[in-house]
Design brief:
Elements: H1 2-22, H2 25-33, E1 37-43, E2 46-49, E3 57-58, E4 64-65, E5 70-73, E6 78-82, E7 89-93, E8 98-102, E9 108-120, E10 129-132, E11 136-140, E12 143-149, E13 153-160, E14 162-168, E15 174-181, E16 184-189, E17 197-199, H3 202-219, H4 237-274
Parallel strand pairs: 9-10
Antiparallel strand pairs: 1-4, 1-6, 2-3, 2-5, 5-8, 6-7, 7-9, 8-9, 9-12, 10-11, 11-14, 12-13, 13-16, 14-15, 16-17
Amino acid sequence: MKKYFFMAAVTAIFGISLMSAALTPQAFAAKETEKTAKVTFVQGDVKVQKSGATAWNAAKAGLVLSDGDAIKTAKTSAVEISFDKNNKNMVRLEEESTAILRGKSLNRIELPVGRIRSLVKSLKKESSFDIKTPTVVAGARGSGWDVIASDKRDNIKAFEDEIFVQSYDQQGKLIKEIFVREGWEVLVDRFQSPGELIELTDRDRNDWNSWRDDLGSRLGPGATGINDNMTGKFGSVQDIQDRLDEQEDFKDQVFETEDIRKVEDRVENDNRLDQKPSEPCNSPGFVCP
């Protein structure tokens, strides 16, 4: 009888220990950070490969995606994915593109090739969302931008707010990081530093506004902050002029900063050449004053 009670007590203690381990803050944190995304719109031929699987299956609206899932689009095809229940964080994968969702919190998308459009308006404090190609990482805490990845060059376009762009070499070492303001784009050759900033064309702006309108009609006015004073849309003539003025100021600041940097480098080099090494008076060839 004593042996029976002893074994029962050991079993009970062991069970309580397992329950305690399962209820640790770390366990809760791990569970809370595992997020999923959902396909909201499919156009044409779109395929999904679930993490760990080999087969590619047709994507449908409502399909749930998670860390490690891959998605690809055929010609004249596209897919839109929501990363929150209120559709405040959306991406659109354009034709002939491939993307892979990364991270338990789904805060990164790898883009080996193709074009992806991101509209991120509701992230947790101190968190960010980015797109990674073989050369660059482009992201923000809340913004709208495009990333176009090709074999030799990446193109990043900022449509709303500001984004960061980091370029990396073949070993994965950071080469340079810059910030791209709304209304500008930058080209980054494979494994090179970002190029000069270029203003977006009217065609780019109109294309972004058109997608914004289409997204609003599909998801409703509350999605992606579409009715929040029309944030991100290029509206009236005065609004466009105001944005152009801001962009000119930003461009002047960029050029001014580069000029100052060149002058400072030149002055530093001149000072370095003017400096003579100090030598003691008894050194050969040195004349004491």
